[in-house]
Write a structure and sequence with these properties.
D-Maltodextrin-Binding Protein, domain 2, 10 helices, disordered N terminus, Fructose-1,6-Bisphosphatase, Chain A, domain 1, 353 residues, binds 7-O-phosphono-alpha-L-galacto-hept-2-ulopyranose, 2 domains, six-stranded mixed sheet
Length: 353
């Protein structure tokens, strides 16, 4: 392509709505499997659909956070190239993007019909997202009015007092979300001692982190140890919502519970080094996890949740609710889509969000 013909447009114009379609399609397929008790199957259909729609998108995409390494994940594996620009003969014709996917965040939530399962991804220009391996990460996530007031290394009480003061309320009036895991016994005890309320969740610390940055969600912070990849996607959302995440990788030997240690592969520190993480003990702030200047975040509700409704099915179509946003324009869009399918007699009902 000659230089005169190359129109460099912001990523937003090129890809925002493509990514909306990707998360909507994945959420719809996953939602069809709701409550079947088969989380692997639910995840599988979301992965398959996300890959299929993404591969038709006008981009030259590379998965930087996905379902795992190539040998363990047949689809959406780390390093997989997707989109029209990844096809032979299309080199240089489409924008290059790095993509972090969580096709079904909260597989158990979907499998049991519990709230807050979402299909989610983040994208950025090359190098815009940390290539985080699948290890645990300690996190604290807060919204815009609390930004700069917390410190992941500070005592729990100090952080909660700082959050309460910024939100102009008592500590007792805070709701803190924590993953319900044995590893959080001490954290839950310490939060409880301050008088703050706790919402224990079985899964889905990514959507809880996003909720913490949306005023009116009733969530004031997310705290505790969850997945590293989820941390990177949360950071992308924080850039778009002006929120903050502070995090630190938790290595195998630092985990007290044998069931947690069992999930971490050996030789990870070496692999992390290869991924550019030379000091795994340092604190990673929002910009370290998602350094990109052109960040896109897209999530679609699978089951009903705190800030997104789940996919709904009716005679003449389906309806989804998504959150799509980008740092390029700082537009945060809650998108209510009616997927009309019933032919000429279909109707669209007004639905107050
Ligand atoms: C979290 C959560 C996920 O895994 O990252 C968590 O967001 C990690 O902790 O939804 P466990 O290994 O103890 O589950 C999930 O719950 C599932 O991937």
């Amino acid at each position: 392509m000659s230089e005169e013909n190359t129109i460099i447009r912001p990523l937003e114009y090129d890809l925002l709505f493509d990514f909306l379609r990707v998360v909507e399609a994945a959420a719809i397929d996953a939602a069809r499997t709701m409550g079947r008790g088969d989380r692997k199957y639910s995840d599988h259909v979301a992965v398959e659909k996300m890959r299929e729609v993404m591969d038709r998108s006008p981009m030259d995409g590379t998965i930087v956070i996905g379902e795992g390494e190539r040998d363990e994940a047949p689809m959406l594996y780390i390093g997989e190239r997707l989109g029209l620009g990844a096809r032979p003969g299309n080199e240089g014709k489409y924008p290059q993007v790095d993509i972090a996917v969580d096709p079904l965040e909260g597989t158990n939530l979907c499998a049991s019909g519990a709230p807050n399962a979402i299909a989610v991804l983040a994208a950025a220009e090359k190098g815009g997202l940390l290539h985080a391996p699948d290890v645990y990460m300690n996190k604290i996530v807060v919204g815009p009015s609390v930004k700069g007031a917390v410190d992941i290394d500070a005592p729990v009480r100090d952080n909660l007092e700082a959050i309460a003061s910024r939100l102009k309320r008592k500590v007792e009036d805070l709701t803190i979300v924590v993953l319900d895991r044995p590893r959080h016994k001490k954290l839950v005890h310490e939060i409880g001692e301050t008088g703050a309320r706790i919402r224990l969740i079985t899964d889905g610390d990514l959507s809880a982190g996003v909720s913490a940055a949306v005023a009116g969600s009733g969530v004031h912070a997310l705290m505790g140890i969850g997945g590293g990849p989820e941390g990177v996607i949360t950071a992308a959302a924080m850039k778009c919502l002006n929120g903050e995440i502070q995090s630190r990788f938790v290595l195998k030997e630092q985990l007290e519970q044998p069931e947690d240690r069992a999930k971490i592969a050996d030789g990870l520190v070496e692999r992390m080094e290869k991924m550019g993480i030379s000091d795994p003990s340092r604190v990673y702030h929002t910009n370290d996890l998602a350094p990109g200047k052109k960040i896109i975040f897209a999530a679609c509700g699978v089951t009903d949740g705190t800030i997104l409704r789940g996919a709904r099915f009716f005679g003449t179509g389906k309806r989804t609710q998504s959150l799509i946003m980008t740092t390029e324009t700082m537009h945060v869009r809650f998108v209510d889509t009616v997927h009309v399918e019933g032919g000429p007699d279909s109707f669209v009902r007004f639905d107050r969000l």
